[in-house]
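Morning!

As promised:
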Amino acid sequence: MDRSLSRRDFIGLIGRYGGAAGAYATMTAMGLLPVPLAYAGPPALPAGTGEDVKIAILGAGIAGMAAAYELRQAGYGCTLLEARSRPGGRCWSLRRGDVVEETDSRQEVAWDGGDHMYFNPGPARIPHHHQGILGYCRALGVGVEIMMNDNRAGFFHDDAAFGGKPVRARAVVNDARGFVAELAAKAIDKAALSKPVSLEDKERLREFLRAFGALGDTLAYRGSPRAGYRAAPGAGTESGTLNEPLDLRQLLRSDFWQNKMSFGEAYDQAATMLQPIGGMGRIAEAFGNALGDAIHYGAEVTQIRNSSRGAAVVWKDRKSGAEQRMDADYVICTVPFSVLRGIDADFSPEVAAAIQAVDYAAAVKLAFQCDRRFWELDHQIYGGISWTTREVTQIWYPSAGLHQQKGILVGAYIWDSPIGQFFGAKTPEERIAAATASGERLHPGYGDDVTRGISVAWSKIPFSGGGWAEWTAEARRRHYPVLLKPDGAVYFAGEHVSYLTGWQEGAVRSAHCAIAAIAERVRLKRA
Amino acid sequence: MDRSLSRRDFIGLIGRYGGAAGAYATMTAMGLLPVPLAYAGPPALPAGTGEDVKIAILGAGIAGMAAAYELRQAGYGCTLLEARSRPGGRCWSLRRGDVVEETDSRQEVAWDGGDHMYFNPGPARIPHHHQGILGYCRALGVGVEIMMNDNRAGFFHDDAAFGGKPVRARAVVNDARGFVAELAAKAIDKAALSKPVSLEDKERLREFLRAFGALGDTLAYRGSPRAGYRAAPGAGTESGTLNEPLDLRQLLRSDFWQNKMSFGEAYDQAATMLQPIGGMGRIAEAFGNALGDAIHYGAEVTQIRNSSRGAAVVWKDRKSGAEQRMDADYVICTVPFSVLRGIDADFSPEVAAAIQAVDYAAAVKLAFQCDRRFWELDHQIYGGISWTTREVTQIWYPSAGLHQQKGILVGAYIWDSPIGQFFGAKTPEERIAAATASGERLHPGYGDDVTRGISVAWSKIPFSGGGWAEWTAEARRRHYPVLLKPDGAVYFAGEHVSYLTGWQEGAVRSAHCAIAAIAERVRLKRA
């Protein structure tokens, strides 16, 4: 018996007796809409099945554009209403001549031109397993390249540790490994193993720890090439002199090991990380080109109503100020809740509560043009990140344009909301001054190398109102499931309607869930 | 008092009383020729100082070409004698139409063309701190890009562990971290710390271990997102289901942790690793173009003699068979000792003994064309390496041409000499069959995806005779210092005359040592 067929029959049954929304909820509960184990591509929507069905998509960000891209192939009529004059939303690359408008400031990008002279103020990396967004890179012909995320030549800096001097990641990471392995070896000797272990396994465990931590013969850690050299090996008599291991007590008292030292092992941060060649915005631009005039730019949604046909959306043309109304069979609303909260809508009380329940990260990024790639020339840093306890939090070194003369350096990436609020409250000029001073602690002479800073405080960017959704565990439990069901004819998508918040993959996958549900509803309606 | 001036005076004194060779040995012993702490660029040879000095350079590999490149700028007359018909030696990229000749076989590369359709049978990665070779990439206009070396999506495979099933690196690496951290936490409880530690520090140490190993509340390791998901998080109801942690006993009994699990932390393997865009051979080609007809191709050196002028080199034109003699003031001999052992020379007994004392790795590499980048499409692997206990040892996934349709996959990289000898003894066809069968264990269906294998067994490559020099500790102590002094007019350079054997950086840095010594000798002679 064909199991999928039987499932389909069951869902059909639910559809007949419980209505389309019931079928959607059942499918979701059964885990049939989401792809169960690994992503297997966008939902298969048979050609022509969407004919005469009109969909209004609110927002031409990644979620909205991915939805439209798929739906149009099945014959659905899609209109995307986008308040901005460009596609992509937070998927955005800033280049020479671009403009950043915050609620209270305006910056124009005055950098030199060049393929590598860009800044991704929003998403800037794609994990290798985010095959939804990577699939669109393939489909749209957007080339990808390796993005170096976790670089052992990067620095950790804590004003309160190691005399405020930056320490190379390779020393922090590998001295920590050595100390931990040495400590673990002591547990073997003290018979602290929870399970009885054979002598042979004990010996193997010792060898394992030695390999893990680069321990010496006595299972003590005394430093290792992994942690770097004071004088590196070369030719002639340069046999190399190891660094002294870091002082463990100082390391413990530093801030290095709290979500920093091991960040490159995180599931969504570990190698290989990727980036579109030429900037993340290439994805948005390619989607925008593919969708052409299906996107209405400058269209600010002001009202959403369920209606007898499906739903009605009122929007304002931002140039002319004229209001227009659009009727659709279904709506896919990808507007961030930070913005949707301010739009007049007749959502159910449950949906309205969900929309209120999500916080948005007050993320800030800032980038400089550098006429000299000092991080490569002076510090042998090619891509990756340095960390500091100062408010700029991170400095990102570009993975593109290696060995070119100039480059764009990310001088701040702040995602902690209180710090981001504080930093974002500054004027663009004040942010530049603060970022320059902080960078000086990591790279003496920094102030002479960085110019023409551009910053984006997402909480002050119209139509975004924040970096990404942050669900508390409680809000996730109470409110998230509500969003997996349509509110009448309105479906929700966007990174906030996923378990991959803050990632474009969340936007793509939530869009796929929404269109699969709409397609099933249309099928049942027609059956 | 200016310390460097005083040193120079001292060396001048040695030079006057002990001769140039004495000055060279003194400078070497004082660590003055090598750059002391960090590489500061090639030695500064004042313009014109080399006029009327003729240098014969044996071998147009990286060492010989780096030496000639610098010397020519100071006015030295350089002739490079290169037995092959191309520059670069082991620095080599194979592309469509290229030919591999071993002592007993001939292969022609029948791959499709394309910028990314190359194979580096020799060196294939450059650590970020190898600023000697990277400096030449800058100087010669050879673009570099990131080479992904250590990829958490790669596989470990051991026929004798985990049922012979490949395991993702992220699980191996991070479950190991978790187990080690848990064990270390037990040592705190058992008061196994060697030094008395404050309660506050103990608590900090617990938090540190929790962060290090992704431990749970009770400091036990129960798996973590770092180790990957059975069902990854997505949208809809896909909240993600973690992998079960690997069985520690099986992990201990596997081969994964012996130089594999931690290889990405090695000083010369850790991120960021780089590669020339278009293949390592681009460096060789750019050097070759810069040196033009200073390189005599097809010139096989048959005799090296010290002479009244300096030295005399006899070489055979491999096309015409004619023997020619060349007189020079100095010789820089970069011929690998595996080959130099077979050349008639009047070296001192000490040098002759050193030349005999070095083993060469019987390294083998093999690559396939794949018409479908199955590693990206089916396994989300972008660059990096998978490991197997089978003789092919490693599979390398290309860091270039991501998302292109086709690619070149390295199906074997063997550096262990006994295995390399065994594998290299096979015919090219037998190697392909063996590599295909092994790859099948890592990637089911491999045999259908790999075609047109090309292999290079370095021990059977004329004028190389091995992959790289391997110094035993004893040979390093007894024989290496001999090579830091000239044998009459003959200086030695090449990766084998460095502490960076197997790396192009060793070739560059040894060349710099040799030319600095020659320049100093010329200066003293003229003073």
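The CA atoms of residues 367 and 410 of chain A lie 4 Å apart.

Hope this helps with the figure draft.
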